[in-house]
Amino acid sequence: MTAITKTVVLDDIGPVEISLDEVGAGKSFLLLHGGGGPDTMTPFGQRFAESHPAGVLVPTHPGFASTPRPEKLDTIRRLAALYVALLEDLDLSDVTIVGNSIGGWITVEMALLEPPRVSGVVLLDAVGIDVPGQPVADFFSMGYDEFLERAFSNPDPFRIDPTNLSPAAQTAAAANRSALATYTGGKMNDPTLAKRLGGLEIPTLVLWGDRHRIASPEYGRAYANSIPRARYQVLSDVGHLPQVEKPDLVIHAVWNTADNEPAPPDGD
Fold it and tell me: Does the pTM exceed 0.90?
């Protein structure tokens, strides 16, 4: 995997520096991480590109992992506009976007901009809509152990002592939390989003972990029902981060929905 830096200019913000990891060649995929930062998506991208003819890009949202963020880049919609401009600058076409958690929220905001370079969308345990009776767990009020219990089907393999992290890793984690609060305004939904999704015409796959305890499978189904051309698929024995728990399961679903050759059978 190669780390590169790209500068994209937005009319209302100016130049924005984006850190990207790129790997592989073939069908283009843009993978957008959630609040846990790029480490929750980069290994998945590497595995994806190693197993299929796929050119994979994994950007770090500016501000995450201690990367620079212009002050005016402060909403999910502006971040979506940034990534649409990135695809233009990179001259990519027939791109499938895969977004996890707030990465899924960014993905649908990108799709609503009707970017001609995007051919498909995969929402991987996305947040962003408001579903009556199905609230998204308040990430900002939960401790580390509660997050693990809610995010993973089996949290034990992913449990670490945060105090044992290096100073750089602790700084990056704090930056992730701060950037997440900035982009979301401290709320994991936009009350206007579900209604606006009625105009989304890009084919969409909504993947949801059956052990998801941050946003329920019913929330995921409501997400899919908000999008005219969406298909809803439940993934077994995974939670909020299925690309971390069972990456091959996600790769299989994503590759098939991108209308390519059949992928190998599901794995762990």
Answer: yes
